[in-house]
Automatic annotation (TrEMBL):
Source taxon at top rank: Eukaryota
Organism of derivation: Caenorhabditis remanei
Tagged with keyword Transmembrane helix: yes
Keywords tagged on the record: Membrane, Transmembrane, Transmembrane helix
Full protein name: Uncharacterized protein
Residues spanning the membrane: 17-35, 100-123, 135-158, 178-203
């Protein structure tokens, strides 16, 4: 454990780093599961109990809820290994917004991994702790960019549901329900909330200094850390 302060202060460090790592691993797990999940934008048909799913990583899927079966294919192609029920064989190509969102997702994942590595090195290497601590404000800036990108992702994808532009106009049906799928919510809520919690725990001192919300008692403890 970096530093030389013992007792209560050292216990505080252990809790700080352990809590940060746990929240980061939780965030990363949700974002990976969300990234792999193809249900980002969903078209459901209640009368036939099936749905079309468009994922962020270039995959479209047809899911038959009655049979519990799912068939996926690259969304650059219109045919999977099994026949695709109409009208889903006529879906439009991936929109430009969706393509941009894909790269936003990749940047978020990279920043998550970067903070996880940064935190782990803080925990296990006193030399890294001494070298990197002066750059905590820089790292906080990068992590703030990740939070902003999560918000950008929300702004990009939610309107895609209301545009209803996956199917061509002639195949649209008012009984079809467009919705944001579980894959997006796992990535957005499951990834963002623990990530923000990790930032608050790890960069508490920097955040308090920036917003002038630290009392003298906290400053003494923070400086000892």
């Amino acid at each position: 454990m970096p530093g030389s302060v013992s007792g209560k202060s050292d216990f505080g460090k252990v809790c700080k780093y352990f809590g940060t790592v746990c929240f980061l691993l939780c965030s990363l797990a949700f974002t990976i599961f969300g990234f792999q999940n193809n249900a980002w934008v969903v078209i459901s048909r209640p009368e036939t109990n099936d749905e079309f799913q468009r994922g962020i990583r270039g995959r479209d899927c047809y899911k038959n809820n009655s049979l519990g079966s799912i068939e996926c294919w690259d969304n650059e192609f219109k045919n999977g290994t099994e026949p695709i029920p109409p009208p889903f064989e006529h879906v439009n190509d991936v929109s430009t917004v969706f393509k941009i969102a894909y790269y936003v997702v990749l940047v978020i994942l990279v920043l998550q991994v970067a903070l996880a590595i940064y935190t782990l090195l803080f925990c296990i290497s006193s030399k890294f702790f001494q070298l990197a601590e002066p750059f905590n404000y820089v790292m906080l800036g990068f992590m703030s960019v990740a939070v902003v990108l999560w918000i950008v992702l929300f702004v990009l994808l939610v309107p895609e549901v209301y545009k209803e532009n996956i199917l061509p106009d002639k195949f649209k049906n008012p009984e079809y329900n467009y919705s944001i799928g579980s894959g997006f919510w796992k990535f957005f809520c499951g990834g963002l909330i623990p990530f923000v919690a990790a930032i608050i725990i790890f960069f508490r001192k920097q955040l308090c200094n920036m917003f002038n919300c630290c009392g003298k008692d906290f400053e003494l403890v923070a400086n000892s850390n």
